[in-house]
Write a structure and sequence with these properties.
This protein has 303 residues and is of the alpha+beta class. Helices cover 20% and strands 31% of the residues. The protein has a 6-stranded mixed beta sheet with strand order 2-1-6-5-4-3.
Length: 303
């Protein structure tokens, strides 16, 4: 550790007293801060305030393309598409105009998940980023980066529909338990491989899958007839699930590997009174639209 500090000091002098953010990027680039080894075990709990502060810092960092905006631990595990990546050259180092974001905060696991929508026509993205904290500092960043080649991608639609939805804080006496929220999500995810599973569908329910929306009434207009029970593939396993649960929002983000190709994926759910109200999906493809023809609704439109 002492040698690392001396090396960073030497780097600072070599850079002629460069700003702290550029120093961080330089250090990241030569591997002083980021390690491919598993990050240290998380502390058992942290506060919502800790997670909110870290998430706010993440949004600032992504907006500026300055990873050093984040309150890092000495060692940080950085992943993109669920694989070890270089923070100095990854999406976090590239400034983005963020049009909308929504975060799930989980003090019990000391982690957060943030949906980030960038609708810039020059290069739109939808990101899903998990942060994990230890002692109030970020020691894991795991980002799914989707753009034009990925599943049902349409950032303009995702922006339009996601920001119109109401994911308000649920009054404390009306909140579902952590176990209830996870069970609702698992029922939906298990349905892909077992059609006998009973899913607690809400009524109404709206599913935002990439840029494709199941509600018929337009942004923010959901009718009692709108349903999320519109079919899913069969014989498809969704495995390696990791849960970020926010009981105050009735929300859970599940990071997982999808299907035989183990595609990096995030499913996010809003659960109200034990029933699924909203579902969002982000899926990283290995080929354009995961090898499927793009639905007519998403063809010939700004993506």
């Amino acid at each position: 550790m002492a040698s690392a500090r001396r090396s960073i000091g030497a780097l600072w002098r070599a850079l002629g007293g460069a700003g702290p953010h550029r120093l961080w990027l330089a250090a990241l680039g030569i591997g002083m801060i980021v390690t491919a080894a598993p990050a240290a075990a998380q502390q058992s709990q942290c506060s919502r305030a800790d997670l909110q502060a870290a998430t706010d810092s993440y949004i600032a960092a992504q907006t500026k393309g300055e990873p050093g905006e984040l309150p890092f631990s000495i060692w940080v595990q950085y992943l993109e598409q669920m694989e070890t990546a270089n923070m100095a050259t990854g999406i976090l180092s590239k400034p983005q105009k963020i049009d909308f974001h929504r975060s799930i905060l989980d003090p019990a696991s000391c982690a957060s998940f943030t949906e980030v929508i960038i609708a810039d026509p020059a290069h739109p993205y939808v990101l899903g980023t998990r942060l994990a904290l230890r002692d109030g500092k970020v020691n894991e960043i795991d980002t799914l980066v989707t753009d034009r080649d990925d599943w049902l991608f349409n950032a303009a639609n995702t922006l339009k529909y996601s920001r119109a939805e109401k994911w308000d804080v649920i009054p404390e006496g009306q909140r579902d338990s952590r176990d209830t929220i996870i069970a609702a999500a698992n029922a939906y995810l298990d349905l892909f491989n077992d059609k006998s599973v009973k899913v607690p569908w809400g009524s109404p329910c709206a599913r935002l899958e990439g840029g494709l929306y199941t509600a018929k009434g337009g942004p923010g207009v959901v009718s009692p007839q709108d349903s999320c029970d519109v079919g899913v593939p069969s014989n498809t396993k969704l495995v390696n699930r990791r849960y970020i649960v926010d009981e105050a929002l009735g929300a859970v983000a599940v990071l997982l590997n999808f299907g035989n190709n183990a595609l990096p994926d995030a499913h996010t759910f809003r659960v109200e009174k034990g029933k699924i109200r909203y579902i969002h999906t982000i899926t990283v493809c290995k080929e354009f639209n995961c090898g499927f023809k793009l639905p007519e609704q998403l063809q010939n439109v700004t993506r």
